[in-house]
Amino acid sequence: MMLEYYFPNEAAEPLLWHPVLFAYTLLVSGADLLILAALAYLAGSLRKAIPLMTMLGIAFFAVVLAGPLADLRSPQRAHLIFANPQIVPTAAHPGISLTAFQTIAWLIALILSVLFALLTFSYHSHQASLSSTGFKRSFYRLFSLGVTTAEKYSVVEKVAKVVAVLMLPFLVLWGIYPASLFLLQTWNPVWRSWALLPVTYFADTFVVATALFMLVYFLWRYRAWEREVVVPVLKIHAAGSISVAALTGLQMAVWWFWSPSTAEMVSPLVPLMYAVIALLMLSFFLSLVAIRYHAVILAVSLVAMAGTFVNKWNITINSQLISKTGLAFLEAELKGAWLLETISPIALGVAVFLVLSMLFPLEVMESGK
Length: 369
What we know:
Number of helices: 16
Shape: globular
Strand content: under 5%
Helix content: over 70%
């Protein structure tokens, strides 16, 4: 039983980081989709899945900063993080801003991702222009980048692979950034003691990414699924789901056996951690079933999203409700239009994806043929 002792100012504002951060951590899944697309392109696999992964990844990753910007106390100063980033220590500012560093990494990753998409779509854009009229024909000609033959595309493919390699480190930095940021917040005893948080969060974001891909693929193709697209993604998703479930259980075991006092402190989080394990284990088993019976894909996606949403809310929001003393569990007072602020960045990502999907076909022929 936890003692009820906390600092008075904590009761006034228990959530220093508001629920909009929850949306922000979900949008980071765009980085993982782009990582999957880049790795698949380099490996010469999942070619039919790459366009959808790329466009979905760009749509979510492009708006990833909308979450924290919506939560700023001085949004009119947001541009300074680009215009005057504190990356190199100076006499006036001896420290290094991790947030500024990640913002620059986001900009570089986004530019490289867009370039990757344009290169990989170039020859297909030319092909699409041949059967289009009006605006679409002009649009496709513009984005063909002059790549009008398979021979030219073979050269472009080499450049695209270089771009894919360059974008990976910046995207990986973003994949682990939320958890790294949490660990650096020394005021929060839960995040500080969650040793497996970075790897758990990275795997969890992959689960969100693959679940999102499967949901969109299901809605887009309905029953016209292609096995060479579905099965590899299901296997990646299954591996991610079982990994997050195992890491969550392992972290609980670490608390119980190595630090009983910490285990007592985090006890309010444990029921939802059990729920996360159960939901992701179910998603794992459903993934195995879906490999044979593709109609189960929708259930795989929805169950996984439920598990990852619970996990991210527990880590991001509930962890803040444990007082700095570790002796009390406070009650969240969500004020104003918090739900609208939380949903808005996600809705913006969906809107960007819809626009991209109308401009760029989600299917391209393999190897530009």
